[in-house]
From TrEMBL:
Main function: Catalyzes the reversible transfer of the terminal phosphate group between ATP and AMP. Plays an important role in cellular energy homeostasis and in adenine nucleotide metabolism.
NCBIfam families: adk, PRK00279.1-2, PRK00279.1-3, PRK14527.1
EC number from the UniProt entry: 2.7.4.3
Pfam family, one: ADK_lid
Keyword Plastid among UniProt keywords: no
Positions of the Adenylate kinase active site lid domain: 127-163
Cellular compartment(s): Cytoplasm
Protein name: Adenylate kinase
GO cellular component: cytoplasm
Pathway assignment: Purine metabolism; AMP biosynthesis via salvage pathway; AMP from ADP: step 1/1
Similarity comment: Belongs to the adenylate kinase family.
Keywords: ATP-binding, Cytoplasm, Kinase, Nucleotide biosynthesis, Nucleotide-binding, Transferase
Domain observations: Consists of three domains, a large central CORE domain and two small peripheral domains, NMPbind and LID, which undergo movements during catalysis. The LID domain closes over the site of phosphoryl transfer upon ATP binding. Assembling and dissambling the active center during each catalytic cycle provides an effective means to prevent ATP hydrolysis.
Organism: Streptomyces cacaoi
Amino acid sequence: MRIVLVGPPGAGKGTQASFLAENLSIPHISTGDLFRANISQGTPLGQKAQEYMRAGQLVPDEVTIGMAKDRMQEPDAASGFLLDGFPRNIAQAEALDAYLAETGQKLDAVLDLEVPEDEVVKRIAGRRICRNDSSHVFHVEYSPPKQDGVCDVCGGELYQRDDDREETVRKRLAVYHSETEPIIDHYKAQDLVTTISALGEVGEVTARAMQALRRD
Ligand code: AP5
Ligand code: ZN
């Protein structure tokens, strides 16, 4: 299956993507995680991305689209993938459409996670991620690690993301509304969108998402 996950910052895309990718045996491709891995390895791509991410802005399309395509060309993505955080504007959605058409692939579903803004703010404020791998995600209240400040998956140190400060979160939400939300209509025109509520326990949301994907 080829799936795009859309939703505001803090909606739980990364959290759900880990479970869904495992259930469906497809790789979880998160452009945010790819950028953070490049930043921690000090690559030129990471250096370029860092200033935009810190400011809560989108990293330029020419950097992002190339990186996403490279990842989709890896062997583990040959029969499907779950995209988390890409595409994030109309230009990226059009580039993805063109790439899929050129390579004889097509999307099966676009899953839109809906969450009220006050819940998003609570989720982001309590989020802690792992220094070794930013896809290891916890929440101080909603999904606390077994040991304070330590990743359950790999034992790495947990910390708060640079872009999770309040003023940056507000900027990211504004960018989501102005640049990312329009891709939902772009995909509605292709009859691919299913909107689900991302409120409730993590497992409940995963079950809802799996049901929505089966219906498609
Ligand atoms: P990215 O990393 O994609 O961030 P985001 O879209 O803002 O989303 P988040 O990672 O903040 O949230 P999430 O929805 O994954 O929630 P999570 O599962 O962690 O992008 C970061 C930056 O990179 C961008 O601002 C941009 O600069 C750049 N970038 C990335 N992609 C780009 C692109 N395509 N083009 C240009 N620039 C790009 O959950 C949040 C918290 O809530 C966690 O603590 C979790 O434990 C908790 N939680 C999750 N589910 C539940 C639940 N059901 N109940 C209670 N708590 C929950
Ligand atoms: Zn970890």
